[in-house]
Structure formats: structure tokens, C-alpha cells
Specification:
The chain is α+β, with helices and mostly antiparallel strands and 296 residues long. 22% of the residues lie in helices and 39% in strands. The longest helix has 17 residues, at 256-272. The protein is globular, with a radius of gyration of 19 Å.
Length: 296
């Protein structure tokens, strides 16, 4: 017998169905703040079924699009076929322990199958749901970002950059030196364009930092963090601002429809908020300069 749970993230509701024998709160503890009441299936962003002890095989004609390690222990592989996608999440030390996600072309109908003795690792399951969510929101003028985000005085400030660039460190500086500043999300916030305004939302996915807040703030500024030997803020507009945001967005770049819709949304975002490159040291001066440069 299956049991169904509903979650609301960035105002989008999705459902997850799985065996009553599995404790979803134990598997997905970061999802608990986002639990919501049931909604009609037609109002769900996507519907996900988790099936244990099910055979996992790729449909005919699958081609590998990407393969990457999410951390030192897990590998994600994305396959595309005529009717949709297969995403595999496997432990690098034991590839028999694999979860496979089967998604239609719009990532609205999802099935996740465990390959080995019904085993269903929470981290791998969360990663697959994150991937489905990040693609499913794109047609709704929303974007899942690789970024760290803080809230201060009712506004959200988003710090982007490659892994190790100092995004979390810069968020920490803001929280240390600016009274009332708090972390919204430290790895995968969602931004949404609505009524000419950009809003940042907390999500169940926050990297190594346990920050799973069901809250939102209007975005006041976005900065690309770069480590340098001095503190210097470079304002960006139009195409330059667009190129600051695009690399940090979660999108299947080989899927033209997703990519084009994402680009349309980013074009609106960069016209609505301040964007810049923050070349900086990890110090108080950098935080104050960035705040001053991004504030209204």
C-alpha cells in the first residue's frame, strides 16, 4: 500500500507517493518544513511515485547526455530518449545501489525505482527529486540556482559563483556584520518572476548547510563572487548581467525548449534587479561594499 505526501516549494505543490513501509520523514527530513495539504492532481507541479524492488532498465534508444559527481560518493547520469529522460543516482563505491528516475519530457510525471533489495537512500532520492523540480519549474518563470542567499531588511541577496568561490563565506560575513541578517538557503534557492518582481524562496536542498526554510523574500540584488586580492564591485547590465546568472542555473542545456524558456526568464530577472561581480577578500569591507552596491 502506498501513501501520498504533498509539499509546497516556491508556491509550487508536488506530490510523492511511496510504500507505507518507508518513513518519508526519515528519508527526506529536509522536506518536513514544506509539507502542505492535498491539492488536485492537475494543480501539482509534478507527481512522483517511488517504487521499491522494481526492475530498472533504460528504454530503447537512450543516449547519455551528462555524467557528473554530486559529491565524493555519488554520481548522477542523465539519459535522454524519444519520450523523456532517465536519471540515475548511484553510489560510486557500489553501483548496484542505484536509484533510477523515469521522467516524461516535461518532468511532470515521475517514477523512481530502487534497484537493490528495495533500498532507497534518502540523499539519492532527494537529489533526484531536486533534478525533477528544477526542470519542472522552468515553464513557470522560475529558476533553481546554485547559490547562497541571505535576507536582510526584508530583501534577499543572492551570491553566485563556481564551487569554492566563497559564496557561503560571503553569506557568513553578512550574517556576522549586519544585524538581523539571516540565511535563506546555502546551495539551491529558487527564484520566481511574478508580477514584475523577483522573489527568492527557501527549498529542501541547501548543500552541506542544514537550512531548510519555508520562507521567501523579494530579491534586491545578485552578485557573482570571485576571490581576488582586493575588494571591487563591478555593476553588470543586460547581456553582461545575463551571463552572470546563466552558468548557475539548473537546466538541461541540450533541451532547447527548457533552455529558451529559462533565457526568457533571466532576461526579465536582470531587468528587475541589480546584478554585479564582487571581486573580494573574505573580510568585512567586502560585505559592506557588496551591500552598498546592491542596495536600492
Amino acid at each position: 500500500m502506498n501513501k501520498t505526501y504533498y509539499y509546497r516549494v516556491a508556491e509550487f505543490v508536488f506530490r510523492i507517493s511511496l510504500s507505507e513501509e518507508l518513513d518519508i520523514h526519515e528519508l527526506l527530513p529536509s522536506f518536513s518544513p514544506f509539507v502542505c495539504d492535498r491539492v488536485p492532481d492537475g494543480d501539482c507541479l509534478f507527481r512522483c511515485r517511488v517504487v521499491c524492488d522494481a526492475p530498472a532498465s533504460r528504454p530503447y534508444g537512450c543516449r547519455l547526455i551528462t555524467e557528473e559527481s554530486t559529491d565524493r560518493s555519488n554520481t548522477i547520469r542523465l539519459w535522454k530518449h524519444e519520450n523523456g529522460y532517465v536519471v540515475e543516482s548511484s553510489a560510486m563505491m557500489n553501483r548496484e545501489n542505484t536509484l533510477s528516475m523515469y521522467a516524461d519530457a516535461s518532468f511532470t510525471d515521475i517514477r523512481i525505482a530502487a534497484r537493490r533489495d528495495g533500498m532507497c537512500g534518502g540523499t539519492a532520492l532527494s537529489n533526484l527529486i531536486r533534478i525533477a523540480y528544477s526542470q519542472a519549474v522552468i515553464p513557470h518563470r522560475a529558476v533553481s540556482l546554485h547559490a547562497s542567499t541571505v535576507c536582510l531588511d526584508g530583501g534577499a541577496y543572492i551570491f553566485m559563483g563556481r564551487s569554492g568561490a566563497g559564496k557561503s563565506t560571503h553569506s557568513g560575513l553578512w550574517m556576522r556584520y549586519f544585524e538581523g541578517c539571516e540565511l535563506l538557503n546555502d546551495d539551491n534557492p529558487t527564484i520566481r518572476m511574478k508580477d514584475g518582481m523577483v522573489t527568492a524562496y527557501g527549498t529542501p536542498w541547501s548543500g552541506k548547510t542544514a537550512c531548510y526554510k519555508n520562507m521567501s523574500c523579494r530579491v534586491r540584488g545578485i552578485a557573482l563572487i570571485r576571490q581576488e586580492s582586493r575588494n571591487h564591485f563591478i555593476p553588470c547590465k543586460d547581456v553582461q548581467a545575463f551571463t552572470v546568472l546563466l552558468p548557475g542555473c539548473s537546466v538541461i542545456r541540450e533541451e532547447q525548449a527548457f533552455h529558451d524558456t529559462l533565457c526568457d526568464t533571466l532576461t526579465e530577472v536582470v531587468s528587475a534587479v541589480r546584478v554585479g561581480v564582487m571581486e573580494c577578500l573574505p573580510d568585512e569591507e567586502a560585505a559592506r561594499l557588496c551591500r552598498e552596491s546592491l542596495s536600492d
